[in-house]
Amino acid sequence: MEALSNSLQPYKNLVAQTASIVTILQFFSGVFICRDIYNKKSTKGISSMPFIGGVTISVLNLKYGLLLSDSAMITVNVVAIVLNLAYSVFFYLYAEDKVGEFMKPAGIGAALTAVLLGYCEYEHPDYLEFRFGLILTVLMLALLGSPLIDLKEIIRKKDASSIPFPLTFMATLVTFLWLLYGVILLNNFMILQNFIGFVLSLIQLILLFLFPGNSSVSSPSKKKKAKSTKRD
């Protein structure tokens, strides 16, 4: 791993800048979900978790970036917080069950954020980076892998439309780039976090192409099939 890191050192800034740009582009993929909500005038079948979880994880990652004094992580997560807050407000405006669909998940996210930021203030500095990084890894992987909770149903119904294609596609690219950056930094948490995240995202991407379902934002293959059907 150290040899690979050394060979990639000349590309450190390039990888960091590319990862930052692609990550910021990933945050804009939420626009497609919001467009779908606007077209339906409803959040039915769409979870608030990508947005609420995005705010929560971004705030905690911002804290981790400050601990590492890493400007790339700090910039990316500030943008992520702003955009995910905007998406969350949009979701709230169209949610029929505002308490069940939005307020409860948002309350859990806010409580979790407060507890973990409080923990950072009391943990010993010598252990903080390691332990906080471990907590972040678990939370990020849980968020990335959450669509796979319904894996049996997806395979049984041959419908993966519950998985948001724009977010999944971009997450696959982003986790790969941050995996490279983690290797360059020899940061074990970034490596573990993004390697598993890449695998989870790739699995979901494969499912979307195998079982595109009926979602208007789920997969490009669905759109191609629809156009073909109309011509016939």
Automatic annotation (TrEMBL):
Location of this chain's protein in the cell: Cell membrane; Golgi apparatus membrane
Domain of life where this protein originates: Eukaryota
Keywords: Cell membrane, Golgi apparatus, Membrane, Repeat, Sugar transport, Transmembrane, Transmembrane helix, Transport
Membrane topology recorded in Swiss-Prot or TrEMBL: Multi-pass membrane protein
GO cellular component: Golgi membrane; plasma membrane
Keyword flag Membrane: yes
GO MF term list: sugar transmembrane transporter activity
Primary gene name: LOC115886646
Organism: Sitophilus oryzae (Rice weevil)
Name under which the protein is recorded: Sugar transporter SWEET
InterPro entries xref list: SWEET, SWEET_rpt
Transmembrane segments: 14-34, 46-66, 72-95, 102-119, 131-151, 163-184, 190-211
Assigned protein family: Belongs to the SWEET sugar transporter family.
Physiological role: Mediates sugar transport across membranes.
